Amino acid sequence: MATSTFDKRMIVTNPESVEKLYQILTSEKRNKPINKELFSPSERLRSEQILTQCLSRSKR
Known about the structure:
Structural class: mainly alpha
């Protein structure tokens, strides 16, 4: 469901908050490593099967 909350203006008046926001917006993004082994292959297969079942039911 789309919302318009992301289109609203944000007004920051506190100088400390302005500085913090500036630091966040201008700092380099830190890449977090992705752990690709969160699930075993059998758990992944089971999850994909469950997802397929859920999606097939929603198409009806």
